[in-house]
Amino acid sequence: MTKEHWKSLLLSAILFLVFLGVWFVATQPKESAQQTAAQDEYAALMGKGAVKATGFPPPQEIGKAIVTHLSDPFKDNGPNDKGIAIQLGHSLARVGIGFALAILLALPLGFIIGMSPLLYRALDPFIQVLKPISPLAWMPLALYTIKDSNLSGIFVIFICSVWPMLINTAFGVANVRRDWLNVARTLEVRPVRKALMVILPAAAPTILTGMRISMGIAWLVIVAAEMLVGGTGIGYFVWNEWNNLALPNVIFAILVIGLVGMILDRCFAGLQRLVSYTE
Amino acid sequence: MAFLQVENLAKAYPGNDAPVFEKVNFTLEKGEFVCIIGHSGCGKTTILNALAGLETASGGNITMDGREVAGPGLDRGVVFQSHALMPWLTVIDNVKFGVRSRWPEWSKVEVEAQATKYLEMVGLGAALHKKPAMLSGGMKQRVGIARAFAIQPKMLLLDEPFGALDALTRGTIQDELLKIVQATAQTVFMITHDVDEAILLSDRILLMSNGPRARIAEIVEVTLPRSRTRHDMHHDPRFYRIRNHLVDFLVSRSKDPKPAGQLHPPVVRPGEDEPAEPPLAA
Ligand SMILES: Nc1ncnc2c1ncn2[C@@H]1O[C@H](COP(=O)(O)OP(=O)(O)OP(=O)(O)O)[C@@H](O)[C@H]1O
Ligand SMILES: [Mg+2]
């Protein structure tokens, strides 16, 4: 690593510590909150046990939550007490299946649209209208027609992933350099071989950019979708802990969502690097 | 009948009343090297693309080896002006892509051997596994040449293959091309803007008048011995006569084409016919 790297890393660490410090100070119990014995009694009477913290939790609470959750990530004690790994697994499975279905549709269709200027223009208005619709807006329709909350979640992921992939694939395929196509033509390359050996590698960087965008959106959407349909998944976990007013758990889940999202994005960045080329 | 016969070729783009060129007639014999020279925009690339089958002319016809040219094919190898290498493939894979298209039944080893042979021929034996992005402009152009040669086409079409190269590199690659062409007796049709390059490489040079309605105004026979080299060509008085003739055409005569109605352009041999002139300072 270069010196610059170390510097930026050090700065990151300092910023993080400052953040923790400010957080710690800001969430110190206030003087007035040092409750009198009478107030304690009152609170106990009203059924608000000491377990339910009031106010924003300090960082050490989050630390405790992290340790608790990570010590038993695979526990499964009924619908409202599943380990974080189990919940993440459900979310990732939904995203994975919806995303895979989107690839199965978007890649071939994008190829066809990209190769045919006529189809490109004919389908463009539909894509333009469908693209900006929030994927969650499909949820009622999905629930009504599919009648299965799990499948509806997958459908929502599918529908939000499909547009960036479709658009980028079509764009990438339509904009393959004329020269390369001419090379293929003069070499009498058969259509399938041309698609796989010339057009696909030429358009791959654009296609993968679309996939990376899709994955980013899918990961945003899955949390909201699971909050809506409930049952399992990281989104449901957040919703459930919010209903329990267990804010440390909610913050823990937020951290996990961010980390997993970052890892997914890094994976696609790696794939992008694999297929990228410099002219 | 000549190997390649171009008759009354014309190209008009819809919307433009005057065709870019018309009544273009010329022939190529087997093993002949022919260059075409003309001002920018007169339609040279369009003619070459029509020969390659990449573009359809709006009139006239092209026959090669007794068959009408109707589309692109493996019997014609094209070296594109922009080299058109696929950047995601290594140098040898670019060439192998062509070889495999030409002989799908060949084994891996045979394909590899053919590609290596032609890359070594253009002096790139050490760069087989590099990506095109890591090569210089001249090296990329040589890969393009190897790819076109390796499919052993009946005719080679080169569109200003050295246009983007500096004079020094250009000279080296010209020498290489000359060697390969002399060794393989390849039929070549080439576009160039460089008068010296045309004289060095060609048997005949087609001079194209300016567009619109461009024509082949004249065909110049290069009467230097075929064994000419870049080095000793300059000592031959015929070289200067031909060169002056070409430059003279480009500077002053390309604007007014020969009167219409004349089907075949006149053939001139400025190296022999004209009285000796004092050579220009080169
Ligand atoms: N799609 C098009 N529509 C209309 N005119 C065109 C089109 N493509 C090319 N032309 C015209 O055809 C003419 C010939 O083009 P071409 O590329 O063959 O020229 P060229 O002789 O190869 O020029 P250069 O030496 O600059 O490469 C040009 O004048 C150009 O304006
Ligand atoms: Mg041109």
Supply database-style keywords.
heterodimer, A: 279 residues, mainly alpha, MetI-like fold, B: 282 residues, alpha/beta, Rossmann fold, seven-stranded mixed sheet, four-stranded antiparallel sheet, 20% strand, globular, binds adenosine-5'-triphosphate, binds magnesium ion
Task: Explain what this protein looks like in three dimensions.
The complex is a heterodimer of chains A (279) and B (282). By secondary structure, chain A is mainly alpha-helical. Chain A has a domain of 192 residues: MetI-like (MetI-like fold). Chain A is built from 11 helices and no strands. In chain A, helix 4 packs antiparallel against helix 5. Chain B is α/β, with parallel strands linked by helices and 282 residues long. Chain B starts with a strand and ends in a 9-residue tail after the last helix. Chains A and B meet through helix 8 and helix 9 of A and strand 6 and helix 2 of B. The structure holds adenosine-5'-triphosphate and magnesium ion (MG).
Summary, kept brief:
The complex is a heterodimer of chains A (279) and B (282). Chain A is an all-alpha fold. Chain A has 11 helices and no strands.
* Count of discrete alpha- or pi-helical segments spanning 4 or more residues of chain B: 9
Rg of chain B, please? 19 Å
Apparent shape of chain A? globular
Which protein chains are joined by the largest interface, and how many residues does each one contribute?
A: A-B, 19 and 24 residues
Task: Kindly state the percentage of residues in helix of chain A.
Answer: over 70%
Q: Tell me the name of the CATH homologous superfamily of the domain at 1-70 and 194-282 in chain B.
A: P-loop containing nucleotide triphosphate hydrolases
Q: How would you characterize the largest beta sheet of chain A?
A: none
- Residue stretches of chain B low in confidence (pLDDT < 50, at least 5 long) are none
Count of DSSP H/I helices of chain A: 11
Average per-residue pLDDT of chain A, rounded, comes to 88
According to CATH, the homologous superfamily of the domain at 84-275 in chain A is MetI-like
Any idea of the CATH topology of the domain at 1-70 and 194-282 in chain B?
Rossmann fold
Q: What's the CATH class label of the domain at 1-70 and 194-282 in chain B?
A: Alpha Beta
What's the CATH topology label of the domain at 84-275 in chain A? MetI-like fold
**What is the structural class of chain B?**
alpha/beta
Name of the CATH architecture of the domain at 1-70 and 194-282 in chain B: 3-Layer(aba) Sandwich
